[in-house]
Design a protein that fits this description.
Elements (H helix, E strand, L loop, with lengths): L1 H13 L3 H17 L4 H19 L2 H11 L16 E6 L3 E4 L2 E4 L1 H19 L5 E5 L8 H11 L7 E4 L5 H14 L4 E6 L1 H13 L5 E4 L13 H25 L5
Parallel strand pairs: 1-4, 1-6, 4-5, 6-7
Antiparallel strand pairs: 2-3
Protein name: YdcF family protein
Organism: Chryseobacterium rhizosphaerae
Pfam family, one: DUF218
């Protein structure tokens, strides 16, 4: 059952890829034209494709999705009024890039580092203990967790205050493996640091594994309403569309008890 649903969601995620949608529209129109049938259907598909390109490219659809994904976490991104019971800051990896065989963190990772450090520093200034749990293996030779650790160390965070979870390859595993570590550390106030567009799905998965994280969004993305479609709007809209599909998957699997 789970294998079949995994496959179906993989297929559904294809519809959040711009090239696939264009390819699909072209293939359908070409097949219908070859049979010399369904002229009205061909016209309808063409018009639908044009309308979709406009809605995605002019930022309208992205603006709606951006609010759905991120609005709840804008006010929670501040650092005030933080609880003090054994705080653990869980930071999710944002990807690794490899340029000339040199591995560096993806751009969005640095906003997560800054946000986590600000929260950590707030506790340390008040002489309170605080741990940073870095979650992410990535697909490079060096894990995301290790690259994060190196950056935190340069900012003055001692190794004794950092915990590496360097086995997870996706958000589901981030939540699963991090929750196992947190549960071994006893009652704690758990903060979750990741990008705003990624927060809703991340929180849902951490809750699935028994944690109630306090969200601390590190960055936000949005589109701009424009008269003419542009690639900036399209790129961010498709990123957010894929995230929405991921949220649907989490919700369905949770309702079926398949996310453990």
């Amino acid at each position: 059952m789970k294998f079949l649903l995994d496959f179906l969601f993989r297929v559904l995620q294809l519809f959040t890829e711009p090239y696939f949608l264009v390819f699909l529209a072209v293939v359908i129109i070409a097949l219908l034209k070859r049979k010399n049938k369904c002229k009205n259907l061909r016209t309808g598909i063409f018009i639908s494709a044009v309308v979709m390109i406009i809605l995605i490219g002019n930022g309208f659809l992205g603006k709606l999705i951006s609010g759905y994904l991120q609005k709840s976490y804008i006010s929670s991104s501040g650092m005030k009024n933080t609880p003090a019971q054994n705080p653990i800051i869980v930071v999710l990896g944002g990807g690794v890039v490899d340029i000339d065989n040199i591995e560096k963190l993806h751009t969005m990772s640095y906003s997560r580092i800054v946000t986590a450090y600000q929260l950590y520093h707030e506790y340390r200034e008040n002489n309170q203990s605080c741990k940073i749990l870095i979650s992410g293996k990535g697909r490079g030779h060096t894990s995301e967790a290790e690259l994060f650790r190196e950056n935190f160390k340069k900012m003055g965070v001692p190794d004794s205050d950092m915990i590496k979870e360097d086995q997870s390859m996706n958000t589901y595993q981030n939540a699963k493996y991090s929750s196992q570590i947190v549960n071994q550390m006893g009652p704690s106030s758990v903060y979750l640091v990741t990008s705003g567009f990624h927060m809703k799905r991340s929180v849902a998965l951490f809750q699935t594994f028994g944690l109630k994280p306090i969200p601390k969004a590190s960055d936000f993305i949005d589109t701009e309403i424009t008269i003419f479609p542009n690639s900036y709007n399209a790129a961010f809209t498709f990123v957010m569309l894929k995230e929405v599909v991921g949220i649907w998957q989490v919700q369905l699997y949770n309702s079926l008890g398949m996310n453990k």
